[in-house]
Amino acid sequence: MSSVTFSEETARDTMESSRRDVMHCEKEIQSIKDSLKLLNPGAGAHSDEDSLNALKVTVNKVRFNGEEPPKDVESPPTFKVHLSSPIEVRTITKLHDPLDPSAEGSFALFKSVEISNALLTVEAFSSADASDGTKLGVSAAHDLLPLFEDLESSTGADTNNSSTLEIAIVSENRDLIIADLRNSKDDDESKASRGGDEGDKGGDYERTEDEEPRNEEGFETSEEKSTAATGTDRGDNEGSETNDGNPEPAADRNDSGQDKSVGDDERCEGLKGEADVVATEETNPGQNMSDAPKEESKVQIPVCVLSVHLEYTPSLNDKRDALYNKLNEVSKRKAAAIEALRKSAAAVNRARAEQGMTSDNVEKSTAVKSGFLKKSKASGSGEKNTPPPLLKRVYEKTFGPQSMLWVVGPIAKNYVVFFAVSVFFHFKGDLLALPPPV
């Protein structure tokens, strides 16, 4: 009995939950239909631009090493935004200004974008004119489909989907562009002053002995630095010789007998290696470090990181298609909820039937029935066979509800009235005659 009750309660809970799901789906379907009515071309005047989607790209911030750019660092002034579908290029010459969001050159606008196939790539240049400037780096291709795949919230004509994306600009030739940006202004000033000195000397500029030679990255070269480090002692120890008789400067070796130039080369290589970060491949949690692969992958430090804001405005067709897709999904959910409601109702009825059959079996199996102590009256005996009193019988025959007077009286009344009127017309009909005309 308890198991039957438990199953019935479970079926009732399932039925109530299914009923709530059906009601929720009904409300959602009604809201989608209202949104479709708003998107109906007959609901209002729509221009040709509303039939095309649009993608607006703006650069909000430029960060170096995860921080704001220092005062002595000049941010890249020009960015080229490449889109693969359609294949178009837009140029951004200034960062986004919240006070003037529609300023010229602060955003890139694309029309008729295929979100399912579009890839976004950003290039950074060192000058306002991209044709004259140096290309600092390029970003990876970013897929736009995961960003704007959910169009279910597009229920109005003015609904826009926005997303902020962090895009890393990486140098293609692995140069230290951050150092070049930091020293760009100083280099220009030094070149200007150096050009004046060269003009006064009347010849090519020559490096002085105190000036340290540097490579393209701005670091000292290993050869010149090692020479500078050992040149002072080399003249004092020209006559010294080793035990084998070979002349060798004593200052070129340290206490352990290692050549100092080798150490200088290693230190210089360490300085140049600051541009690349050596990342060891991750091993499994249960794997020993000795079993880890010895191969190393180099991860390049980005020149800068751009905070790019993407604002996508879907077209009317995109909104309508998204709403229809959502309507189909909600309709499927409603059908599933109705099916669950039907099954739960059938389970409740089945539980009730089982409970009724169980109670009938219990009643039939009872040995003692209710009312077994009452004596049954014999047939032909009792108060029902006793005749009523005489006066009551006379009353019932003469004036009672079932007497002849009350049964025949209403019928005989009609005949009496008919014959009385006929006799009156026959004998006294002249009383009803009209007087003759005068």
From TrEMBL:
Biased segments, Basic and acidic residues type: 9-21, 181-206, 250-275
Acidic residues bias locations: 207-221
Species whose genome carries this gene: Cyclotella cryptica
Name of the protein in question: Uncharacterized protein
Ranges of biased composition (kind: Polar residues): 281-290
Region (Disordered): 1-21, 181-297
Domain of life (superkingdom): Eukaryota
